[in-house]
């Protein structure tokens, strides 16, 4: 048995921060941000919008697209680095908000690769017959842990959520998933504080912000993504020409171009949302997937390659027959 994507949804908060808005906050320029990253604007959650609120909206859209209701969902997993609280986990909050009772609900913390990790876990539950209707979400409010005085990171991130419904199928569906991590790079992309680790002398949660050695992250990201897409093709005996769509994590246009080049794919076959949403971490892949399904680019039966890379480092891919 396989799992297949029965429906998708996404949600982006209304508020938009443009590159020119950022020029007023830090010493940067629209030209620098566009040329170095490909980003022009990003959506930011309002103060009263939590990660779970974005996740709930994306989930409702995915459930409607799949034609399923709260009583059908029997598994919930959320990839997120910016949970509402330490506990209850975002999965439980989403479960309560959607009126779902009793099924497993949890979140997976794998930074920008969180959705790929969550998808891989949900796929195992569905294809082993332990779940019949899984809600898989990537949702983030990265703006909450962004240092708005640090120009090297604050120009990159945005908020949003994406969701998919997985159901059992005799035909693939999720063909394979590939998950990787290497903690030796842990200090290149991190937060300045956490729950059980605090910077010396700092008050609890003071200065809880993203820090990134962008240039070094860039180099490992390119290499790791090139190798994971190779691994995915090889594991399935596929030629790169057989992939219809690349749906990459939206961190940097130059990283995306490098992966597309390795696959020999023209950019017309790459789903790009970076310009309008920035890097929404675990939300970026399911958002891009839903956007391209809803605007008619991705068609049933097509072969999709999803990939992501993030703090940890973590990275991963999923080969999907839509
Ligand atoms: O999603 C999780 C994984 N994250 C990623 O994959 C992100 C990977 N990294 C990147 O996308 C890129 O490294 C960045 C977009 C973050 C930066 O691009 P870069 O080409 O690697 O630039 P850089 O860090 O080498 O910085 C080049 C210059 C520096 O100035 P000097 O030292 O050459 O004088 C920076 O201080 O650009 C400067 N700079 C800026 N200038 C204007 C850094 N940030 C800014 C800024 N505006 N916002």
How large a portion of the residues is in β-strands, by DSSP E? 15-25%
- What is the ordering of alpha helices and beta strands? EEHHEHEHEHEHEEEEHEHHHEE
Mean pLDDT: 96
Major sheet details:
5 strands, mixed
Helix content: 25-40%
Low-confidence stretches: none
Put simply, the count of helices is 10
Number of strands: 13
Q: What is the global morphology?
A: globular
Taking all Cα atoms into account, the compactness measure Rg is 18 Å
What strand line-up does the widest sheet have?
A: 1-7-6-4-5
Distance between the termini: 16 Å
Bound molecules: oxa(dethia)-CoA
Quaternary status: single chain
Q: Indicate the structural class.
A: alpha/beta
Q: Which features does this protein show?
A:
322 residues, alpha/beta, five-stranded mixed beta sheet, four-stranded mixed beta sheet, 13 strands, 32% helix, globular, binds oxa(dethia)-CoA
């Amino acid at each position: 048995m396989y799992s297949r994507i029965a429906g998708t949804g996404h949600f982006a908060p209304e508020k938009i921060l443009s590159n020119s808005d950022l020029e007023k906050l830090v010493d940067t320029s629209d030209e620098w941000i566009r040329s170095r990253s490909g980003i022009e604007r990003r959506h930011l959650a309002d103060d009263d919008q939590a990660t779970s609120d974005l996740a709930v909206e994306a989930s409702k859209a995915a459930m409607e697209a799949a034609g399923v209701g709260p009583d059908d969902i029997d598994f919930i997993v959320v990839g997120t680095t910016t949970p509402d609280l330490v506990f209850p986990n975002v999965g439980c909050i989403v479960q309560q908000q959607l009126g779902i009772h009793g099924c497993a609900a949890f979140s997976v913390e794998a930074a920008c690769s969180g959705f790929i990790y969550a998808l891989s876990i949900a796929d195992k539950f569905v294809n082993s017959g332990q779940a019949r209707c899984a809600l898989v979400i990537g949702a983030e409010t990265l703006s909450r842990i962004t240092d708005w005085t640090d120009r090297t990171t604050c120009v990159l991130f945005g908020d949003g959520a994406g969701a998919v419904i997985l159901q059992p199928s005799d035909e693939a569906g999720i063909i394979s998933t590939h998950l990787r991590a290497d903690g030796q790079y842990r200090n290149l992309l991190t937060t300045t504080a956490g729950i059980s680790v605090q910077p010396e002398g700092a008050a609890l949660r003071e200065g809880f912000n993203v820090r990134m050695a962008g240039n070094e992250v860039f180099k490992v990201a390119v290499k790791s993504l090139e190798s994971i897409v190779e691994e995915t093709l090889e594991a399935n005996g596929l030629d790169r020409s057989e992939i219809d769509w690349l749906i990459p994590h939206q961190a940097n246009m130059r990283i995306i171009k490098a992966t597309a080049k390795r696959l020999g794919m023209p950019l017309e076959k790459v789903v790009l949302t970076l310009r309008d949403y920035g890097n929404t971490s675990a939300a970026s892949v399911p958002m891009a997937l839903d956007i391209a399904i809803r605007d008619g680019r991705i068609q049933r039966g097509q072969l999709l390659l999803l990939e992501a890379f993030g703090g940890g480092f973590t990275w991963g891919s999923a080969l999907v027959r839509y």
